[in-house]
Amino acid sequence: MLRILCCWCLFGTVSFAQDNKFLKVWPEKPAGEPTDLKLPPEKDTSNEKSRTVAGKPVIRIGNVSEPTLELFLPEKEKSNGTAVIICPGGGFNILAYDLEGTEVAHWLNKLGVAAFVLKYRVPARDKTQPWLAPVQDCQRAVSLVRSRAKEFNLNPKAIGVCGFSAGGQTAAFASLISIRKYDPIDAVDETSFRPDFGMLIYPAYLVTKDGSKLADNVIVTKNAPPMFLVHAQDDPVRPESSSLLFTALKQAGVSAEVHIFSKGGHGYGLRKTDDAVTHWPTMAELWLRAGGFIPKK
């Protein structure tokens, strides 16, 4: 059963719902939201026929019209000031909210990292740019978290993004795009929307259909943040999204690390299987430590 769709907070405050904390991303209507959009109520779309991962079901949230951040703050004595905004995947149709969201947040908390699971708008509003509304939500979320860094005991220069599949494209664009994709609306938007690092796990839609090159809208410059990328060679969502992005980052002089595994497919999150790719969190932890985002042991 879905455990998070309870009550929302007013902007600027934190509310409690079954021991979870939520922030409303936008004070009112989200940027660019169609005036004539009418969605059914937000809900978990999973059923008994839905695919399981590592023998466990997945929460698949659909019909999101009010983007929120769910807060997962580490124990005070473990906190190191770093924060990550997590973008679950789901093909811009649904959000794999536990598999690629809350479970990732719990892992980050163990590392002393504050985690904010972004429930961005789905399904896609603009079929020609399905990433646009999610990227707007992510840019706003980065500004929101950074603007409240003192409140959450965060280093405003150590706020990253982590995305999976379609959420990987969202996190990639939030990291690469140099302009805010909506008009500023308040003081929050006076704070930078650019992440300080990115972790892209089997990111989708970053290359042409034949996988021969990066898509035209994937523009990499020297101003991109450090990135960590993971993919499996047999992933039906092209692994070239990771390998070609890594090459472009290298050519731009941006620090990056990529891991391409021979097997693993797609959509495993942090759940362990017999495939080596599911041990990527160990490598990500080493990368975070090497980059100074979390203390070295």
Features:
297 residues, nine-stranded mixed sheet, three-stranded antiparallel sheet
Walk me through the structure.
The chain is α/β, with parallel strands linked by helices and 297 residues long. Helix content is 21%, strand content 18%. It contains five helices and twelve strands. The chain has helices spanning 98-110, 132-147, 166-176, 240-251, 280-290, and strands at residues 15-17, 20-24, 43-44, 60-62, 68-72, 83-87, 94-96, 114-119, 159-164, 198-201, 227-232, 256-261. The strands form two sheets. The protein has a nine-stranded mixed beta sheet, sandwiched between helices. α4 (240-251) links the parallel β11 and β12. α2 packs across α3. The longest helix has 16 residues, at 132-147.
Brief synopsis:
Helix content is 21%, strand content 18%.
Question: Which parts are unreliable, with pLDDT below 50 for 5 consecutive residues or more?
Answer: 1-19
User: How many DSSP H or I helices?
Assistant: 5
In whole angstroms, the N-to-C terminal distance is 38 Å
Adjacency order of strands in the biggest sheet? 1-2-5-8-6-9-10-11-12
The helix/strand class is alpha/beta
Number of strand segments: 12
- On the 0 to 100 scale, the average pLDDT is 93
Listing every helix as H and every strand as E from the N terminus to the C terminus, the arrangement reads: EEEEEEEHEHEHEEHEH
Q: Bin the helical content.
A: 10-25%
Main beta-sheet strand count, sense and barrel state: 9 strands, mixed
Evaluate the radius of gyration: 18 Å
